[in-house]
Amino acid sequence: MRGYNSFCLDWREVCDGKVDCWPKPVDELDCHELEQNECGSGEYRCRNGQCIPEDNVADDLVAPDCLDWTDEVLQLDELDYNNICHNGYPSLGCYDAIHAHWTQVKRTHLYCYGEDSCRSKYTQMFHRNVLERAANLHINDDCWATMICLFYALSQIPL
User: Cα(151)–Cα(142) distance, rounded to whole angstroms?
Assistant: First the structure.
């Protein structure tokens, strides 16, 4: 939560050295514990520190065990990346995990050169995966139009 208005933080904003929540800086508390996490024998440590059984690594791309998908992205090739990230998968998997993997490992998909570039890419994927009409067929046209208007109106208010 940021300030007095309820607002969800992106996971990259937690333990990043910048206080986003006030008057209580809960987003920066106990961050040292994330770095101290060690997995036991027969376990795989996800990039986010989560431990999963080694047998679950690279076993099911559609149902990753790591919350950040790092147990599955290493098996992707370029075709998989394009099929998954441009065909309706949620932005968490595509941007936060898979996109980061291709940016760091393949070097042929360097879309993200810094925080501003990352935010821009994140926003594009958010718009495509959450705000597009095709992603909201379960609500009527008036509801969808209202959601779009509210989103854009609120995005113009500085936090």
Answer: 14
CATH number at residue 56: 4.10.400
Distance separating alpha carbons of residues 16 and 49, to the nearest angstrom: 15
Same domain, 30 and 84: no
Tell me if the bond preceding 23 is cis, omega within 30° of 0. Answer: yes
What distance in Å separates the CA atoms of residue 125 and residue 127, rounded to the nearest whole number? 5
* Contact (CB, 8 A) for 68 and 96: yes
- For the whole model, what pTM was predicted? 0.38
My answer on whether 153 and 103 are in the same domain is yes
Q: Total structural domains in the chain?
A: 3
pLDDT tens digits for 23-68?
Answer: 788 888 887 776 677 899 999 988 777 899 999 998 877 677 887 6
- The Cα 107–Cα 95 span in angstroms is 15
Give me the domain span that covers residue 50: 37-67
Half-sphere CA count of 77, side-chain side, radius 13 A: 1
Using DSSP's 3-state secondary structure scheme, residue 80 falls into: helix
Task: Give backbone dihedrals phi and psi of 87, rounded to 5 degrees, phi first.
Answer: -130, 40
